[in-house]
C-alpha cells in the first residue's frame, strides 16, 4: 500500500475526516500476528504483550514455539493511511484459547480479516478460520514462512485448512513489509470480488 497526500486522481485533500476500514489479524498462538501488524503499521503499533510466566504452564500450548517469551493479552493495533480519504486500522487478536472471548468484541465493524498460519502447526489456525466463516466475514490466509523456509506447498496447505478455492493465500515472511502489503492487497481484491458477486 502506498501512502499519499492526494487521492489516485490527484485531487487535493479537502480536510474532511477519512473513511476508516477495520481489518482483523488473527491466527493461533505465536504464528506472527504481532509481527505482521508491526511490519505494516505506519505508526508505532500499540502492543499488549506480557512475558510468559510459570503461571501459563499447562494453560498455553507452546509446542512448536518453545522460544517464545511474550504473548498478546488483549490486542495489537496499527494504522495505515492509504491516502487522506482512507485509513486502515489493524487489530491483532490474541491467539491463546483463554482470550478467544475477546474476538466477539474485536470483530464488530470489521470489513475483513487476515488469518496467519504456521505450516509447523496448521491446526492452530482452525479456530480463526471457523470464526470468520461462521460470521460471513471475508478473509485471506497468510502463511508465515519463517526465514523464507516453505515446508509445504500451497495445495497441501489449502487441503489441510479445507479452504474454499476463492480464499486467497499468500506465502512469505511476515517480518517483511512487502509481504504484509501483499496480504492486505489480496484482502482488498477479495472484498471487491465478493461485493461484485452480491
Describe the structure.
- The protein has 198 residues and is an alpha/beta fold.
- 25% of the residues lie in helices and 24% in strands.
- The chain has 5 helices and 8 strands, in the order βαββββαβαβαβα.
- It has helices at residues 33-40, 103-106, 126-134, 154-161, 177-197; strands at residues 19-27, 49-51, 70-72, 76-83, 86-92, 110-117, 139-144, 169-172.
- The strands form 2 sheets. It has a 6-stranded mixed β-sheet, sandwiched between helices. Strands 2-3 form a two-stranded antiparallel ribbon.
- Strand 6, helix 3 (126-134) and strand 7 (139-144) form a beta-alpha-beta unit.
- Helix 1 crosses helix 5.
- The longest helix is centred in the last third of the chain and has 21 residues, at 177-197.
- The radius of gyration is 17 Å and the shape is globular.
- The two termini are 26 Å apart.
- Keywords: GTP-binding, Hydrolase, Nucleotide-binding.
- This is ATP/GTP-binding protein.
- Pfam families: ATP_bind_1.
Distinct helical segment count = 5
Extract low-pLDDT stretches: 1-6
Question: Widest sheet: strand order?
Answer: 4-5-1-6-7-8
The radius of gyration over CA amounts to: 17 Å
Q: What is the β-strand count?
A: 8
Largest sheet: 6 strands, mixed
What overall geometry do the principal axes of the alpha carbons give? globular
